[in-house]
């Protein structure tokens, strides 16, 4: 009976992730596990982003076709505008899915904060604190990126709704395009910051793994 209970305890311990059976695991190892789990939750992030990028290219082609037709209301332009509106709806869906992945990653990553003070080696603690700050800044930057891109999609939708308006005037069109351009400038700025922080984080993570002789799944 005692043997059966021991086997059951081993099975339970092997199935619980980041909880329960961590008693004999070092804080450094716990940080490693948290990092790997948070990164795994972002695995589909790139796929979502690539789909958004492809939809952006398709929308640009639609816009180009509308302008070449003379942009004034017609059956052809109305059809193209409806295609663009469908495109925007698709981008909103992929953006929401992308956002959800980042939020799930952040929720897991925040568990690291409880491990920092438990690390005894000062050099390693400093490494983890730096890594923690970088990743938090990355999450904050993504949130700004998400909000800016969401606003850009609102402006895009307004543009294509204008194209279906029989009384559309050139100054209205120019004003809307200026709003869109300024909005996407902000998106690009946050996107560049996000990429820079991602690269910095990955380097800091690799350094932490090497210092602690941990396995790096990215290598």
Could you explain the architecture of this structure?
With 219 residues, the protein is an all-alpha fold. It is 79% helix and 0% strand. The chain contains 7 helices and no strands. It has helices at residues 2-15, 27-40, 45-68, 75-109, 113-116, 122-162, 170-211. The chain is elongated. 20% of the residues are buried.
Q: Which characteristics define this entry?
A:
single chain; 219 residues; mainly alpha; 7 helices
Task: Write a short abstract of this structure.
The protein has 219 residues and is mainly α. 79% of the residues lie in helices and 0% in strands.
User: First CA to last CA: what distance?
Assistant: 45 Å
Query: Major sheet, described briefly?
Result: none
Fraction in beta strands = under 5%
Shape: elongated
Class of secondary structure makeup: mainly alpha
Tally of alpha and pi helices: 7
Fraction of residues in helices?
Answer: over 70%
Extended strand count: 0
pLDDT < 50 stretches: 1-22
C-alpha Rg (nearest Å): 24 Å
Secondary-structure element order, N to C: HHHHHHH
Mean pLDDT, all residues = 86
Question: Helix and strand layout, with pairings?
Answer:
Layout: H1 2-15, H2 27-40, H3 45-68, H4 75-109, H5 113-116, H6 122-162, H7 170-211
């Amino acid at each position: 009976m005692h043997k059966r209970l021991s086997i059951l305890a081993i099975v339970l311990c092997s199935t619980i992730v980041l909880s329960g059976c961590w008693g004999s695991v070092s804080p450094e190892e716990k940080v490693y596990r948290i990092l790997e789990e948070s990164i795994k939750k972002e695995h589909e992030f790139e796929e979502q982003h690539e789909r958004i990028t492809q939809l952006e290219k398709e929308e640009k082609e639609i816009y180009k076709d509308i302008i070449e037709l003379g942009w004034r209301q017609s059956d052809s332009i109305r059809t193209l505008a409806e295609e663009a509106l469908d495109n925007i709806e698709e981008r909103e869906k992929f953006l929401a899915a992308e956002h959800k992945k980042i939020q799930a990653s952040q929720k897991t990553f925040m568990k690291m904060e409880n491990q920092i003070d438990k690390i005894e080696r000062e050099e390693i603690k400093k490494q983890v604190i730096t890594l923690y700050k970088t990743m938090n800044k990355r999450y904050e930057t993504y949130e700004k990126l998400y909000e800016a891109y969401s606003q850009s999609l609102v402006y895009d939708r307004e543009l294509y709704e204008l194209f279906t308006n029989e009384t559309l005037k050139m100054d209205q069109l120019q004003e809307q395009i200026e709003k869109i351009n300024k909005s996407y400038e902000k998106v690009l700025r946050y996107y560049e910051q996000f990429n820079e922080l991602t690269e910095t984080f990955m380097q800091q993570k690799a350094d932490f793994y090497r210092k602690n002789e941990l396995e790096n799944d990215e290598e």
